[in-house]
Amino acid sequence: MAAPLLELERLSVVYEPAILAVEDVSFSIWKGEIVALLGANGAGKTSLLRAISNLLRAKRGRLSKGHIIYDGQRVERVPTHRLVETGLVQVLEGRHCFLFLTVEENLLTGALGRRSSRGDAKDDLGRVYEVFPSLKAKAKQPAGLLSGGQQQMLAIGRALMARPNLLLLDEPSMGLAPLLAAEIFETLAKLNRDDGLTILLAEQNAASALHYASRAFVLENGRLASGGPTADLLARDDILSAYLGLVSEKIVETASI
Amino acid sequence: MDWSFLIGVVISGLLAGVMYSLVAIGFVLIYKTSGVLNFAQGSMLLFAALTFVSLHEEGLPFWIAFVLTLAIMVLLGVLIEKIVLRPLINQPPITLFMATLGLSYIIEGGAQFVWGTQVHQLDLGIADVPLPLNSILISQFDIFCAGVAGAIVAVLGVVLQYTRVGLAFRAAAFDQYAALNTGLRLPRIWAITWGVAGFIALVGGLLWGARTGVQFSLSLVVLKSLPVLVVGGFDSIIGAIVGGLLVGLTETLMEVYVGPFIGGGIDQWIAYALALAFLLIKPTGLFGQRSVERV
């Protein structure tokens, strides 16, 4: 088997003064996969994604232990903007669009992050508008006027402008109507299928995440509680009820839609 | 009532306000991108004026002294950002404020150490005498200042709106964390911002210096620009301009029309009274952003 695209080795995350948010978490992601990261609020999903994108320092946290290997390189000391340039891009929890900038300007900041040439930025803009046609209609409007779903699309579109190899998404379905969430998951699945985009998806919405992911890991109180192919996880009643708060029939039903 | 006199007072008040705006813009730029209330802006202004005057007095021609001082100011700004503020990143605002407060004394002391303490005259070659204009008296120098401020604001506006650096600046100003995550190079944006703030300090220093003489009280204009920021909003360039104009106008009007009844000196404190009123009624200032946060 080829080397993984992303390898987490025994990661621990600490916030000042002494809050241990993630403890001893290891797993790997291979190219072309969709991997789900599940867990309740406060389980450490966001902290883990922050660690991967080297964003912890901005939140007064740090990686207290462990290594992160991306594309064969140790990256735990590589600044975020270098990671973005090499295709490791994150869509933050809560979307974080630049609300006073227009939709198109928001997208262009993604091109700035990658240091795209003007020509590339223009091509990518066209591509993002193909993926999210509703953004094109609002290109010149401030992002603050978009609906929640459109802001999520914008946040994902901004990330796509950086031409990601590995896209980290933190709760993209948060606060969205089920139909809108499904539309966003479908889009991500399509990007994965057609462009081979590798995706790490942190979600509380376990049913949807398991439906689209090939493998999943469950975090509980900062530790990896279980993990494996989604089919195996879905077959285990103890995991469904204990970690995901779901009854097996229900999730099988939802997941097979 | 003498209308032409009133109009004259209003115009000279607005023009006086332009001088406040010039200082306030430097504040706003830095506050917007890095959330630092840079108390050292005033001593940067003094440092710039003093450096320019001293170089000029050494016999350097105007433009060479200007460019040299500009280079020094940009360097100073970049160094402050790198050496003092970068290590304090993520510290509470009060820590950053104290750091810039200390910095302002170091810069003042440094300027004193290098250039001495005597008062310098600065002549920009523009007469500070009133020109009669349809029976209204307006200082030629005031008009020049307004022109310079207008030009700076116009250039800033164009750069912010239409260039990549401007886009990065606006993004970082709105949401630093998202900008960081998007891959924008915040340290570079901060360095550029401090460089620009250095340039604005130089321009402000020259104009103020030409009017009042280059001396150490020059760094006190920082105290006059605080009410401007409260009135206009700490994070709005437009606010800095309107706030400056409003403060200048209020000061002049009050001094002329109310001052005689209470024995003058009203322009010493009226700006603060105005700021206090704004804090009570509209704490974000006229153009300040209300924080837009999603949960």
UniProtKB/TrEMBL annotation, chain A:
Lineage: Bacteria, Pseudomonadati, Pseudomonadota, Alphaproteobacteria, Acetobacterales
GO MF entries: ATP binding; ATP hydrolysis activity; branched-chain amino acid transmembrane transporter activity
Classification via Pfam families: ABC_tran (PF00005)
GO terms of biological process kind: L-amino acid transport
PROSITE patterns: ABC_TRANSPORTER_1, ABC_TRANSPORTER_2
Keywords: Amino-acid transport, ATP-binding, Nucleotide-binding, Transport
Family stated for the protein in its record: Belongs to the ABC transporter superfamily.
Organism encoding this protein: Acidisoma silvae
ABC transporter domain mapped to chain residues: 6-246
Keyword Amino-acid biosynthesis on entry: no
Cross-referenced PANTHER family: HIGH-AFFINITY BRANCHED-CHAIN AMINO ACID TRANSPORT ATP-BINDING PROTEIN LIVF
InterPro entries per the UniProt record, alphabetical: AAA+_ATPase, ABC_transporter-like_ATP-bd, ABC_transporter-like_CS, BCAA_Transport_ATP-bd_LivF, P-loop_NTPase
Entries under SMART domains matching the protein: AAA
UniProt keyword ATP-binding, yes or no: yes
Protein name: ABC transporter ATP-binding protein
Automatic annotation (TrEMBL), chain B:
InterPro entries: ABC_transp_permease, BCAA_transport_permease
Localization, UniProt: Cell membrane
Single Gene Ontology BP annotation: amino acid transport
Primary location class: membrane
Keywords attached to this entry: Amino-acid transport, Cell membrane, Membrane, Transmembrane, Transmembrane helix, Transport
Pfam families for this protein: BPD_transp_2
One GO CC annotation: plasma membrane
Keyword Transmembrane set for record: yes
CDD domains membership: TM_PBP1_LivH_like
Membrane topology annotation: Multi-pass membrane protein
Membrane-spanning residues: 6-29, 36-56, 62-84, 96-115, 135-160, 189-208, 228-249, 261-281
GO molecular function: transmembrane transporter activity
Assigned protein family: Belongs to the binding-protein-dependent transport system permease family. LivHM subfamily.
Protein name: Branched-chain amino acid ABC transporter permease
Organism expressing this protein natively: Acidisoma silvae
